[in-house]
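Bench notes, afternoon.
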Amino acid sequence: MAELRGPGRSDEILAVFTRNVARYGYDGTNFSEIAAELGISKGTIVHHYGTKDRLLAALHESYMRRRLAEAELVVARLGSPAERLAGLLYAFMLYQVHDRDATVAFQREIVRFADQPALAGGVRLRATYLDLVRGVIESGVDSGKFRRTDLNVQSLLVFGSAQWAWTWFDPDGPQSAEEAGAALVDLVLGSLLVRRTGLASLADPAGDVVEVVRKCLLAAAG
């Protein structure tokens, strides 16, 4: 019987590739193992994606598109700049359990963005995401709720602080993703807010902001 080469195969290949990159890294992932797991030939993988770099590009682009869709919902559903930034920070940590394999695969291989032409689309999407974070911080500054800061540096610090979470956050450990997110909210917003009277509620791992973020993740996935 001939191999099926429809879109379902493409999705399966990307899913197995993503899981293997999360576990073994890009260099430790190869077409032979993916093909063996799926019961297909390496030629089928090449038919769908061409090269390993293009598979990595598909991983990164699909990942960033999901994150952008969620972030846009978070910003739309939360009212103030402080709530919006808190929501984005919680989302950074919830990704560690909400989309674990893709998050680990993305975060451990993001350094390849710098010099891989095939990943240019992922670079643009990441820039769009950073612009969204900058916009939230800028609106907080303009409204007088946040102290003045270097928007570019602050957004990169925010993004970078979550970038390495895959190396230390354990989904099966004693701290939940919500609790880790609350610590990140306390750290970032504690340094930005002109008045910290509402910080405790924003940094509540069982609070309203977290609940909105959870709903946004589910809505974007659905």
